[in-house]
Amino acid sequence: MLIQAARGLIPPFLLAGTLMLLLGRRRGGRGEWPPFVAGLVYPIGLLGGSILLQGFPPLPPVSASHRLALAAIPLAFLGPLWKDLENHRGRAWLLGGAAALLCGLYPVWISFARSPWLPSETDPGSLILLALPMLAGAAASTPVRERSKGARGESLVLVLHATTAAVLAATGSMLYGQIAGTLAVVSTISLFAALTNRPRLLGASSLPQGAILGIGLCLAGLAYSEVTTTEAILLCLSWALTPLALGESRPLSWTFLSAGPAMAALVLSIQSLLSDSNPYGY
Amino acid sequence: MFRSAAVLSALSFAVISASGISTSLQEPGGEPTTKKESSRPERYEIDPVHSTAIFRVGHLGISKFYGRFNLVKGTILFDEKNPGRSRAEILVDAASLDTHDPKRDRHIKGPDFLDAKQFPVLRFVSTEVVLARPDSLRIRGKLEIHGVEREIRLDAVRTGRGEDPWGGYRCGFEARFRIKRSDFGMKFMLGPVGDEVDIILSVEGIRK
Questions:
Q1: Closest Cα in chain B to A282
Q2: Per-residue pLDDT tens for B1-19?
Q3: pTM listed for this prediction
Q4: How many domains does chain B have?
C-alpha cells in the first residue's frame, strides 16, 4: 500500500519541484509567477501522478478521474481570467451571473452533447461541479487584491488537499485519495517556496483551479466511491469558504473557520473506518 | 459434433444493469445462403440462475483467491450446422461481484478496481467463431471491462444440451481464459494483487 501511494506521490513531487527550482533560479525574490504559468503547476503534478497511477488518460477519457486530470489543463486559463477581472468593479456580479447562466443551461447542453469528455447527466456532481467553483470564485475577489505575504494561504490549501486525500482514502478509494494526494504534494512545494522566499507556484489566482479539482474529487468520491453526503458537503464547504480566509486583512479565525468543516469530515470518515470490525484491511 | 455451438457464448461478457441488461444481438441474415448454409442459428437466452463467471487472482504472490459474479446474462445464436455463423453476447453485472468478504467486495467494486458505478457491465461480444474440435470452439471477440475494450481469444466447450423438465431445450457452454487487469486500466496494487486474472465462464442457455 505504501509503495502504491509512493508511486502516486513521488512523481508529482519531482515534477513540480523541478519546475519550481528551474523557474526559481530565473526569478529571485518574493512574488508570484504569472497566473498562466502558475496555472500549469496543478496539471503537471496531477497528470504526472495520474499517469503513474492509471497510465496515460485515454482520449476521449472514459472515467471521472481521467476527465478530472485532463480538465486541469484548460483550468489553467482560469488564472489569467481571474487576473484580468481583478480590478473589474462588477466582478462578483459578473461571475455570479455566469454561474447562474451555466447552471441554467448546463442540463440542456449536456443532454444534447452526450460527449465522453463531459460528466454524464446522471452524474450528481456534474451540475454542482460547475456551480460551486464559480460561486466560490465570486467570493474570492478580495484575496486577489490582497495577496498574502505570509504562507497562510498555501498552508490552508495544503491542509484542504491533504484532508480531502485522507477522507477519500478512508472511504473506499485509494486511487482518488492518491490523486488528491498529488494535489497536496504540489501544495507542499508551493508552501515550501513561500517559506523560503521563492516565487510562489500557486498564487491566489490558482485558488479557483485548486478548488475545482478538490471539489471535483469530493464529488467523484460521492458518486462512485463511499464518501457520504455529509462528508462531501463538509469538504466542499471548506473549499467554498477558503476565499474568505485569504488576504492580509482577514483574521486568523477565518482560516480555522474554513478548515473546520474539512476537519469534521475527516473525523467522520475516520470514525466510520474505525467502527469497522477490521479497520486495517481484509 | 458439435457444431454449434454457437457457442459461444462463451464468452461474451456483458452485463446487466440493475434495471436489467438487454442485449442487442441480432440473428445473422440478409445474405444469400447456399444450400449448405440454409440453417438458421438457434437463439438461446442465458439463464442467470444456472450461469456463473468465476475468477481467481494472486494475493501477495502467496496464494490465489477466488471470486465470482452472480449475475450473468446474454444471448447466444448457435448454428449447429455452421458454427461460423454463431455469435454470442455475454453481459456480467459488475455489482454482483462476490468474494465472500463484504469489505473486499466494496473495494473491488469501487474506483480502485472495477469502478462498478461508472462501468456497471462487463461485456463480451464474439466476432469470430471457429469449430476447433467436436464440442470445442475457438472464439475471438471483444471484451469490455472498466470502460476499456480489448480483443481476446478463448476456447469454449459445449458442456451439454437437451430438453429440460419444463418442456424447454437447453444448451451449456464453458470457457476458460486469462486476462491482464492492467490491460483494462486496473493498475491499483499491481504486485500485491496479481495482474493476471483467470476466468471461467459457464453459461446455460434456454432456446427461444
A1: B104
A2: 333 433 333 333 333 333 3
A3: 0.76
A4: 1
